[in-house]
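Reading a protein record of the kind used here takes only a little practice. Each token is a code from a learned vocabulary of local backbone shapes. With that in mind, consider the following protein and its fold in token form:
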Amino acid sequence: MNRKTALLTTLPRTVTVPYYAPSCLFLETFLRSKLIPYETTQCSLYNVLPREHLYPLIDVDGYFFKNLMEGLDYLLAKYGKSLDSGLTPKERAQALALSALLDELTWMLAYSRGQDFTWLRDDRKIIEDFGLVQLYFWRNWIVPQMQKRTRRRVRGYGISGKSARKEVACRTEAMLEALASLLASNKYFFDVNEPSWLDCKAFAVLAQFKYTPLQNEARVKQFMKDRTPNLMTFVTRMKEEFWSDWCTTSED
């Protein structure tokens, strides 16, 4: 039977943020900002490792989208919405450039998680959702393998060696400061009445830095408080505007 309302298949939810994967958090935030109805279901625990890079999946009107942007384009067309409505051609170009910066920042996040992803093993939401056998499998196989695979991907990207930790910290701070300079005192990154897709992506990435454990946690989070407080405010504002159920989604 064809689904009229989109069904998003996502990675497991956590207590710290609704999703530890920025892609899942981005998609839900964007759909909420556009008032596009959807439902969610968590993927099978046993599909986390082999298909982690595919999530979120979108099932709607008999179509099953494994590519996030293809599915998003379909939903936008279905509901008569636009990906970048209100943006000028110059702002659209700037959004693409900032998106690339956020992708690079995600690699800095991946480096941290490749070094230590143990917080995910003992996340309270996951402990509540899984049975004993599933939880044993999650803690002792899935999370350690996720950490190893993430570390390998980061090395393949070119972040490795004895100086990697310092390099990642410096690059993270530089990118955060660049984003803070561009946001300035504005509500969103562009002069629009509602958040653009870029705002939703920035929120999904920055929320990971604000709320989840990091390798250089004390340094990075203190830097954000001292040097990029507007980014912290931006994340809080987006959370309050589009995630009124943050606690129930993440904790209950």
The longest helix spans residues 89-115.
